[in-house]
Amino acid sequence: GQAKDFLKQRDLSSLSQRLISLLENSKTPPMAQSVFLERIVIKSTGKVMFLPVNEIEWIEADDYYVKIHTAERSHLLRESMNELEKSLDPNQFQRIHRSIIVNLSLIKEIQTDFQNKSVVVLHNGKKLKMSRPRQELIERMSVRKTVKSDKTFE
Question: For residue 108, what is the enclosing H or E element?
Answer without folding.
Answer: strand 107-112
